[in-house]
Amino acid sequence: MKIKECRLFGIAILLLLMIGTCTCAASEGEVDIRLIGNYSQGSGEIDAFNGYAYISDYNHLYIVDVSDSSDPNLTSSSSYNAYSTAVLSDDYIYMADPLVDGLRVLDISNKSNPNTTSTLGGYTYSYPNSKINIEAQDTSVFLRDRFGINVINVSDPTHPSAVYTIGTSSH
């Protein structure tokens, strides 16, 4: 079974076990996994898209070129407080950012120089060391913290807007 896209919360050194040419042969309950390369900077959430890996580790966002999976190269490192990331296209990355208690949108069309396009605050409440999950699909980003889920419309990444909130309790 070929793995097309994987997510892992853990150590970034395992990055290349999860993307590109990593294969898992599931026969008689055995799994064949081989390390084909590694990148040892940072740990946290990993999202891969079109030959690049995006690694967030609470204090930084690393963009790593993994087009040659045996020789990953750091393209850029930014000191954004990126709790977690979700990639929607080649041009934008969406981050759950505790500094704005919500969403930060980065223009990554120039992978070596990502820039903040917009922020939308007030949609998460972060406690120290708490996790804010983020997922992206089509023109929506979903932020989840311990109080609920927020749906954000990002059809225009320069002007994200809140669509709906599903609360589990108030903060």
Automatic annotation (TrEMBL):
* Highest rank taxon of the organism: Archaea
The protein in question is named LVIVD repeat protein
What broad taxonomic lineage does this protein's source fall under?
Answer: Archaea, Methanobacteriati, Methanobacteriota, Stenosarchaea group, Methanomicrobia
